[in-house]
Specification:
With 472 residues, the protein is of the alpha+beta class. It has 4 domains: 103 residues, Trypsin-like serine proteases (Thrombin, subunit H, Beta Barrel); 99 residues, Thrombin, subunit H (Beta Barrel); 95 residues, Pdz3 Domain (Roll), CATH 2.30.42.10; 100 residues, Pdz3 Domain (Roll). The strands form 5 sheets. Strands 1-2-3-6-5-4 form a 6-stranded antiparallel beta barrel. It starts with a helix and ends with a strand. 33% of the residues are buried. Its main location: periplasm.
Length: 472
């Protein structure tokens, strides 16, 4: 009898174990998390993944070509044929590259990386059944490395987006793409980490995965076990093993929608210089460790300042969402619609205050800026600017009533370097449009078409005014 009881208990235990295994919802495990479904997922998703081939023209034959085949005596007539093993030196050459992408709707829109199609003269899309189509570029967002292209084709099988927020660390994911030009390659792995910052820009928020990603995978989808796109494969660590990065779908979808609707991306803008709250500052302001973002400066005539936010405020939430770092604030504000109103809660002198801010548009030139109104990279003309403030005006001897952009650096060999403009000169107008800050400069220059002339009015010191013409 005792033996029979033991057998019954063993049978019940086995049934319970089998039941929990067979019905993962009862055990708390995620459904369809076993590798046996990889083949079904791949078969279902592969028709939505494409191979992208581009051709671009390299001016002057390229640096490598000139290095090996150029004349050691410079550009002297009659010497090109002698020193070039291919006869006369080519002025241009073409270069091909490969990448991946995925279809997002039956109208033919395809998502890929900006670096896959950047500066391309021709973009060709190859479907899973080897059909080839010429694609046109709809819009790009270099800051997040996303691009939207389109083909005219029928019977397409698009992929659907899932939420990257729901992709848990340790969950299975599948990457499909064309590594090294090997089309429709399927690799599997897990989500290794989330929220990775790799130094590519102000909106770094990558999914890290150990699913094998190699050159050529760029722009391809990272799929969950439901076949939904939770990431766009974008970057790898050189010489890294099992370390790849994907743009989260939750970040990408809003950008893709904007590219589809208006062919460009606009982001919310406060107009503040911010920094993370240190441990000492947390104690001083009586904050929880890691809570809030310190406003180092609120720029006049910008949305935050006009709403009442000032230097010394600590921003702790936006629209009820907690803010724990500068990155949190940057991502949150950038994700809000330009012109919308955002309730921003701050701590000022130990008291909580809420301000309603009508968001402006973040100027493109500030995307990589450390401070709110400073351009920290050369523009297409070769200038680097900083908005004139009281401190800078005192240093350079400009009256405090004057507004404009101070030239802080000039790129050697650029149009700017050959124009006679000097560091310290103040840009006040472009084509009779007042320039009071970087946002003005970006807006005016964006309206000037390639090949047109920009007439720039500069001031040097308190008396000298001069105009310089630039061909865009």
């Amino acid at each position: 009898m005792k033996l029979v009881d033991q057998q019954i208990r063993m049978i019940i235990a086995c049934l319970m174990l089998f039941g929990l295994w067979a019905f993962p919802a009862l055990s708390g495990a995620q459904p369809r998390m076993v590798p046996a479904t990889f083949s079904q997922l791949a078969q279902q998703a592969k028709p939505g993944v494409v191979n992208i081939q581009t051709v671009k023209t390299i001016q002057g034959g390229g640096r490598v070509f000139r290095h090996f085949f150029g004349s050691p005596f410079g550009n002297q007539p009659g010497l090109e044929d002698f020193f070039s093993p291919f006869g006369r030196m080519p002025r241009n050459r073409t270069e091909s590259s490969l990448g991946s992408g995925f279809i997002i709707d039956k109208a033919g829109y395809i998502v890929t990386n900006n670096h896959v199609i950047k500066d391309a003269d021709q973009v060709k899309v190859i479907l899973h059944d080897d059909q080839e189509y010429d694609a046109r570029i709809i819009g790009v967002d270099p800051v997040t490395d996303l691009a939207l292209i389109k083909i005219d084709a029928k019977n397409l099988k698009p992929l659907t987006f899932g939420s990257s927020k729901d992709a848990q660390v340790g969950s299975w994911v599948v990457a499909i793409g064309s590594p090294f030009g090997l089309e429709q390659t399927v690799t599997a792995g897990i989500v290794s980490a989330k929220g990775r910052i790799i130094g590519s820009g102000p909106y770094d928020d990558f999914i890290q995965t150990d699913a094998s990603i190699n050159p050529g995978n760029s722009g391809g989808p990272l799929l969950n076990m439901d076949g939904e796109v939770v990431g766009i494969n974008t970057a790898i660590i050189k010489s890294g093993q099992g370390i790849g990065f994907a743009i989260p779908s939750d970040l990408a979808t809003s950008i893709i929608d904007q590219l589809k609707d208006s062919k460009r991306v606009s982001r919310g803008w406060l107009g503040v210089s911010i920094q993370d709250v240190s441990r000492e500052m947390s104690e001083y302001y009586n904050l929880e460790p890691g809570e809030g973002v310190y406003v180092a400066k609120a720029y006049e005539d910008n949305p935050a300042y006009e709403a009442g936010i000032r230097q010394g405020d600590v921003i702790i939430s936006v629209m009820g969402e907690k803010i724990n770092s500068s990155r949190d604030l940057t991502l949150t504000i950038a994700g809000l619609k330009v012109g919308s109103k955002a309730d921003i809660e701050v701590i000022r002198q130990g008291k909580n205050k809420t301000f309603t801010v009508k968001l402006g548009e973040r100027p493109d030139s500030l995307e990589n800026s450390q401070f709110g109104e400073e351009r920290n990279r050369f523009d297409d003309l070769g200038f680097m600017f900083k908005t004139l403030d009281e401190e800078l005006a005192d240093q350079l001897g400009y009256p405090s009533s004057i507004k404009g952009l101070v030239v802080t650096r000039i790129d050697p060999g650029s149009q700017a370097a050959m124009s006679g403009v000097r560091v310290g000169d103040l840009l006040v107008e472009i084509n009779h449009k007042k320039i009071t800050g970087i946002s003005d400069y970006t807006r005016v220059m964006r309206k000037i078409e390639k090949g047109e002339t920009a007439h720039m009015l500069f001031r040097r010191g308190n008396s000298q005014i001069f105009v310089v013409r630039f061909k865009k």
